[in-house]
Write a structure and sequence with these properties.
Two copies of one chain form a homodimer. With 325 residues, chain A is of the alpha/beta class. Chain A has a domain of 179 residues: Rossmann fold (3-Layer(aba) Sandwich), CATH 3.40.50.10680. Chain A is built from 13 helices and 14 strands. A seven-stranded parallel beta sheet of chain A has the order 5-2-1-9-10-13-14, sandwiched between helices. A three-stranded antiparallel beta sheet of chain A has the order 7-6-8. In chain A, strand 11 and strand 12 form a beta hairpin. The longest helix of chain A has 15 residues. The two termini of chain A are 15 Å apart. Chains A and B meet through helix 3, helix 4 and helix 5 of A and helix 3, helix 4 and helix 5 of B.
């Protein structure tokens, strides 16, 4: 079986770890391809940083910090301190020494003319992910957040998503999101094929706005999903009216989407109604929303969705797979 | 008094520290300008590394590793380990985490269009050197070492100086040195002025071939020295027939220059005979060579030249200054 997943950062990565563990117990494990979000990429200090690709890589490669939820385990921040000592901005980005090596290799390869997809494949060789990780696009796409700014004549300005997310902890109200470069971005090598040839397409519990949203915004990807022969199953990132982790609520509200499992399902929409979902897996505590979700025109089920350990995460992956028919 | 010094790495840097300490005791301390060698610069991992400029900066800024003789104190090598884990070459270069921040800032600024001289001035702001550090040139110059290679049809090939020095410990016989880019390099901003306006010009005990040599090789610099009104005083890097530190002997032999204080004096030559030296300070154990050196047409004196501590180094600087007349 070929499984293709659209993933953001740590939430998606952890679900994928459960999926691989679940597949490993099968007589014929599926081949998993991940289309990774690059919308939160940022150039800092002359280096290209791909937080979501790296979260998937580190988490599945066994190099992620489990308690921090981003970056590498056994991390140090010597270079970051030294950059600050030089007075170099920004100082708010969490740039670890181990993590930095990834950005250095990536930037050097990009500078040598390799595409991000080729660079990502090269980096992944070290980590033995057990799956194929494809950037959604080789073209530069950057999510910016529109915030109020009375000093601007327009009354608003856009800042990079990372500045809003990491520096401001998403506490400044987002008036909207702009995917700079998304309209001209082309799907990365293998991306459309991975959707077309899939037997199952999975939306892990990633942020619908800033993780899955930029992937869907690459011209051709949403169309490929609409045309895919495979069922598309999503897993709600919203549990009990709040994001499991991260600040998806601050993103959803900017789009006028309620922070609820049902509202996110409606945001994606049912394939029977021009959307991208055939099925939606929600947490058991949201089970009262099942009829509402099913009324959208998709299958739905409620199971425990907290990825507390690998056993629980395997069960979530299995539940998602069982929703295909 | 304006003192201008031509310096390589750690040997030059330590002498400069003694010079500044010696000057600080004067009622009117001299203003010191250092023309730094950039011939051993190298691009690694997409980053511009300037070992000699950094040795001067770290040593005078109080951030150098005293026992290691290169790089930063309290250094860690996490990024280097991670780069090796990615299989990225080379693995032989000693790239510390603290040191790396310097290269990142430098590379980012170069990438933004700043000249190396402007970048160096910006980096030096942090370190409060007590002197002005000028790269010999803003243009790229790289010392390469010609070595024998039976696999090449010519029987020889050139490798970067750092590969020869750091990886091979200068143990492969050097057939010659090539200063790539030197013939087209222009003196950096302020370099010629620092020579022309100097009251004293100093050659600290830096490697004559790969530290001072590339500086002299920048068109215009040797000519400015020949025309300078200031006396030019050199301090021998050779003590008792061997380099005080480093592997200058392996460099000198490639040029057919004996590893002795007198031979290096003859290599630079007396200004009275078309060379660049008015005076040459040697170690007391080489005092038998004083007549031979004086016969070249320059003043000479013998004092203890080992920079064992700041007190000894101050005395060396004072002895060099007293040789001007």
């Amino acid at each position: 079986m070929r499984i293709t997943a659209l993933a953001g950062g740590i939430g998606g990565a952890r679900l994928l770890r459960g999926l691989l563990a679940q597949q490993a117990e099968l007589a014929q494990p599926g081949e998993v391809t991940v289309i990774g979000n690059t919308g939160d990429d940022i150039w800092l200090f002359g280096l290209k940083i791909c937080p979501d690709l790296d979260s998937v890589m580190y988490t599945l490669g066994g190099g992620a910090s489990e308690e921090r939820g981003w970056g590498r385990e056994d991390e140090t921040f010597t270079v970051k301190e030294e950059l600050a000592a030089y007075g170099v901005e920004p100082t708010w980005f969490g740039l670890g020494d181990r993590d930095l090596a990834t950005h250095i290799v990536r930037s050097q390869m990009l500078g040598a003319g390799f595409a991000l997809s080729a660079v990502t494949a090269a980096l992944c060789q070290r980590w033995n992910l057990g799956l194929r990780l494809l950037p959604m696009s080789d073209d530069r796409v950057e999510t910016h957040v529109v915030i109020a700014d009375p000093d601007e004549s327009s009354g608003r300005r856009a800042i990079h998503f990372q500045e809003w997310w990491v520096r401001h902890h998403a506490e400044i109200p987002a008036l909207g999101f702009v995917q700079i470069g998304n309209d001209k971005a082309r799907p990365g090598p293998g991306v459309l094929e991975a959707i077309e040839s899939a037997d199952l397409i999975l939306l892990p519990p990633s942020n619908p706005v800033v993780s899955v949203g930029p992937i869907l915004g690459v011209p051709g990807i949403r169309e490929a999903l609409l045309a895919a022969k495979a069922p598309i199953v999503g897993i709600s990132p919203i549990v009990g009216g709040a994001p499991v982790r991260g600040m998806a609520d601050a993103c959803l509200s900017a789009l006028g989407v309620e922070t609820s499992a049902a509202a996110v399902a409606a945001h994606y929409g049912a394939r029977t109604a021009g959307g991208i979902l055939d099925a939606w897996l929600i947490d058991e505590r949201d089970s009262a929303a099942l009829p509402e979700i099913q009324a959208l025109g998709m299958r739905a089920a409620a199971v425990p969705l907290l990825m507390t350990d690998l056993f629980a995460t395997k069960a979530i992956a299995a539940a998602a797979l069982s929703l295909t028919s």
